[in-house]
Automatic annotation (TrEMBL):
Entry similarity comment: Belongs to the TRAFAC class TrmE-Era-EngA-EngB-Septin-like GTPase superfamily. AIG1/Toc34/Toc159-like paraseptin GTPase family. IAN subfamily.
Keyword Nucleotide-binding: yes
Taxonomic source organism: Labeo rohita (Indian major carp)
Region named Disordered: 1-21
Protein name: GTPase IMAP family member 1
Disulfide bond found in the keyword field: no
InterPro entries per UniProt: G_AIG1, GIMA/IAN/Toc, P-loop_NTPase
Keyword line: GTP-binding, Nucleotide-binding
Amino acid sequence: MDASLETDYGALEQCDSDSSDKSIEMTKPELTIVSTGNCAAIQFGYGNILLGEKQPNIKNLEIRTIVPLQRKISERHISVINMTGLHENELNLDSANHVIGQLVNENEIHAFIFVVRLGQLTDADKMGLEWLQRVFGDKVLQFVMILFTYEREEECDTIKDDMKKNSVLEQLLEKCGGRYHTCNKTMNNQSEMRELMKKIDHLFNENKQQHYTVEIYNTTIKQGEELKNITCQSGGQKVYDPEGWDLW
């Protein structure tokens, strides 16, 4: 591959009230989080505590590396693997699997944050969660928390009504154990980010302090290869998948 197309999807950086603390890069993260979902639900920028500046456009480029973001939130060192919008890009699947496999091998993941715009659930959002489950396996759902973003605070008052009226949204939350958090799409509110960290801690304890590990990922890859082989042997006809990738 041409070296000019080599892209780092993510960057080493930090952003908090204590951003002058240069020791963050040398400190083992207390939490490792994967961010996925809809880029349009996020306003990237220096003030974005969780994700920082928007990363380079990787559409139609083969990903070679995804570098975890090193952040400091509420005196805690957080490693964020930013895969937001990755499922929307036209990427070589084998290459993506290789990079994701390497990340999982090098990081024990506490939680997956799936970002959705509050009140604007789209087909792309549905596909995004389906992609997450297909790539990381069914067990990933026990580590997922939905992060609804808003522009105006009054939007948060309607979320419970939205859940009652929208069966798809209700199903989305049900698959993720009813776990969700709301924050401004700028992600610049310290108290909202502190509360998010508390909810991730609670999720970690709910999972009996188990991480998403490379063993879980390798099992998923093996199952996918076995299903592909069965499909090929059946002459390309659709075969019943006991794991059930279709979410909707």
